[in-house]
Inverse folding.
């Protein structure tokens, strides 16, 4: 979900302070030699590349969570970097190498070239060895290196405040836009599902399987387990914010705003714990609903459909079938009857012709008698007259199963479709 979001609570601000510390030294302390000035440039280049890279990553990750980078005074840091930018320009701009630069021969590095230039300097990071404990000889043009480092330093000094401003603006928008907070929350859920839920689900499945072995796979048993887990989640031994968060969710209160309001206190481990509970609760709700859907149909269609899930599926599918399959004659609706039986939606072991007629007339808006409807279902040769419609109906059903989430839930309940 947000597994790499923080290295430490104040990691980013530590990096920002490093840049400011070395930058202020360059502007306030006179170097003992020109070589020291170049050495300081190396240091600035290193800390700025690291800070800008980490901050860029944080900006991307911040768009996927309600949590905030902790311990950063955005506006103060932005002001400090902008002030330092001018001081560094004045000091380094006075160095002859940079003051007298031939821009035709040594053009400035652009923002689009940052990654490629950064890659050029990889060799400097590998100077101590070549991977086998032996010294590695490296060749580079010192003048080109100095100019590119100079450009990268000032690109970073411009870019870092922009990234901080982006983080600050995002926080302000989240503060004033509840819909944006909900969308961010949904993204957190999706990330958790993609990255962590499968492993957590396997662990929970063991508990669920053990419970089913002892108490059965029925609505009462699963409801008891869900209540037990809900109580555990809402009454954690240490209480605290996760318990509050779980309680808000269970009572359908605004747990999303609670997360945002406490974004500098909640940890990613706590959020993961909450998301795990949400997924387990939803899984059990779905299992309980499936138990209901597997119950026999009720009322006038009790002998018609194989289950409540079958009835709901037929009711969802029939309008779509009517839209895409052209029934010109009454007997052709027999193709629908045959398809529903083969899909195990309509019971074939009951004398339910009257119920079938009633459902067809109601849902298709027709007035067809029993003899007409079943004309082509009695003999194989007669069925050939409607086979193309039968296959067209099955094709529509397959397409709908792939694009209608509710139908997939119903299919799980049927277990045979």
């Amino acid at each position: 979900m947000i597994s790499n979001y923080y290295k430490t609570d104040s990691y980013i601000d530590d990096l920002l302070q490093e840049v400011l510390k070395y930058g202020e030294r360059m502007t306030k302390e006179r170097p003992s030699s020109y070589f020291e000035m170049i050495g300081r440039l190396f240091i600035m280049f290193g800390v700025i590349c690291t800070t800008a890279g980490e901050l860029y990553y944080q900006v991307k990750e911040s768009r996927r969570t309600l949590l905030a980078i902790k311990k950063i005074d955005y506006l103060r840091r932005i002001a400090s970097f902008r002030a330092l930018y001018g001081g560094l320009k004045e000091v380094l701009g006075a160095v002859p190498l940079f003051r007298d630069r031939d821009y035709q021969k040594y053009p400035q590095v652009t923002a689009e070239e940052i990654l490629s230039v950064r890659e050029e300097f990889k060799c400097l990071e590998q100077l101590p060895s070549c991977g086998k404990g032996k010294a590695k000889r490296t060749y580079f043009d010192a003048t080109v290196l100095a100019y590119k480092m100079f450009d990268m330093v000032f690109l970073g000094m411009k870019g870092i405040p922009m990234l901080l401003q982006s983080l600050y603006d995002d926080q302000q928008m989240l503060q004033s836009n509840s819909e944006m907070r909900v969308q961010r929350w949904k993204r957190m859920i999706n990330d958790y599902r993609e990255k962590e839920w499968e492993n957590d689900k396997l662990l929970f499945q063991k508990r669920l399987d053990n419970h089913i072995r002892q108490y059965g796979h029925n609505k009462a048993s699963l409801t008891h387990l869900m209540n037990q887990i809900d109580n555990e989640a809402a009454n954690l031994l240490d209480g605290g914010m996760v318990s509050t968060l779980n309680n808000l969710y269970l009572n359908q209160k605004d747990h999303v705003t609670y997360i945002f309001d406490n974004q500098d206190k909640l940890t990613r481990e706590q959020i993961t714990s909450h998301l795990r509970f949400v997924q387990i609760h939803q899984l059990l709700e779905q299992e309980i609903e499936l138990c209901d859907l597997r119950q026999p149909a009720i009322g006038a269609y009790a002998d018609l459909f194989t289950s409540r899930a079958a009835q709901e599926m037929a009711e969802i599918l029939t309008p779509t079938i009517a839209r895409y399959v052209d029934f010109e004659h009454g007997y052709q609706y027999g193709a629908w009857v045959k398809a529903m039986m083969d899909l195990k939606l309509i019971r074939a072991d009951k004398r339910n012709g009257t119920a079938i007629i009633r459902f067809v007339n109601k849902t298709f808006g027709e007035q067809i008698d029993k003899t007409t409807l079943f004309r082509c279902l009695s003999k194989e040769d007669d069925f050939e007259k409607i086979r193309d419609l039968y296959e067209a109906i099955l094709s529509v059903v397959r397409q709908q199963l792939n694009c209608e989430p509710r139908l997939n839930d119903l299919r799980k309940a049927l277990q045979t479709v």
Remarks:
- The chain has three domains: 11-176, 179-293, 299-414.
- The chain has 19 helices and no strands.
- The CA atoms of residues 142 and 148 lie 10 Å apart.
